[in-house]
């Protein structure tokens, strides 16, 4: 199979099934090298075993790996770029989160030095939408043959080709064109709008703001295409139903604009505009007090951990062949139970955490909250290590029968003989 074909298959899988990833799924080269070395080292002394190859086993392993990734990303979101401690991160405050969401991304300065400002939103940034003509589903007005059309984005032309057979109908070709455009990964998504007995093509840009020429993000044409013309006019996909627009807003009375509704201010705040403000009622952006930020971070940590435990318990119950994972998590949390309970995090019988807000705030209000809440940071570090371990080898918790053990300490790593779990495609990453 050619490299081109493999690339197309890989792109199609990611386009069709990959979940949305966050910035925490991007890693530096040395981090990826560290993961690879960990896999090779782990395989060096791994025993030979027979796996349960059932669909339940595969689903169990993939779900466990996905949830471990989400837990690690949740913990990462509670830390800053300047500190790995959940006890240090500053949290932005917005006087109206329904209109403007704020996230603090600046340095860990004192609360007195943190910037604050008022923002008024006049208009949100929007994308371009083209909606074609509504055509009868069971008819076809194009002659059989090979057709093509071009889409211009950022001064780059992309050609799309398709064929019309004798028995093709409008609905068939519209679905085919929609898949061609969406799977091309050029910043557009296409779908078919269905009516009673007719349908039309809808094409929209994934990016917002005016980024292209003539005030448009993309232009559809078949004036200079290589195959038969006529498809653009017939399907009407060059009709612009909604033109793109930039976000218009004011910060402390000074007018600004942006391509996107998501942008940064003074390298300190990341804002997400969600609606227009009314009259003279701007949204105030600043930082929460250290006490409020600390307690909110810990509550978010407990929430992320509880979601992870509940989902993993459900997978384990449905799989029903291995209780190893829940046993290990119970031992991990149990080793910190007394210390966590003393600061307001009580371990329930099902393995989740209950937050005592009054006791937590009392602990956070002490003269040295980092010292009084140090058990929470140690617990967080242990969770990070465990999530990395699960991501490297989720099959460890599936049902398996050991056939033979290797002679410990006498083996050599072989990068060309990896285990059955390493290098597998789990959603959008390896």
List the helices and strands and how they pair.
Blueprint: H1 3-17, H2 29-44, E1 48-51, H3 55-77, E2 92-94, E3 100-104, E4 117-123, E5 129-131, E6 135-136, E7 145-153, E8 156-164, H4 170-182, E9 188-194, E10 198-205, E11 219-221, H5 231-235, E12 240-242, E13 247-251, E14 254-258, E15 262-265, E16 269-273, E17 283-287, H6 290-319, H7 324-334, H8 337-341, E18 345-347, E19 353-355, H9 357-364, H10 369-372, H11 374-392, E20 400-404
Antiparallel strand pairs: 1-20, 2-17, 3-16, 4-13, 4-17, 5-10, 5-12, 6-10, 7-8, 7-11, 9-10, 13-14, 15-16, 18-19
Helix pairs in contact: 3-6, 3-11
Give a verbal description of the structure.
It is a single chain. This protein is of the alpha+beta class and 430 residues long. It folds into three domains: 29-87 and 292-404, no CATH class; 92-125 and 246-287, no CATH class; 129-242, Sandwich (Immunoglobulin-like), CATH 2.60.40. Helices cover 35% and strands 23% of the residues. The chain is built from eleven helices and 20 strands. The strands form six sheets. Strands 2-17-4-13-14 form a five-stranded antiparallel sheet, with no helix packed on it. Strands 5, 6, 9, 10 and 12 form a five-stranded antiparallel sheet that branches. Strands 3-16-15 form a three-stranded antiparallel sheet, with no helix packed on it. Strand 18 and strand 19 (353-355) form a beta hairpin. It is globular, with a radius of gyration of 27 Å.
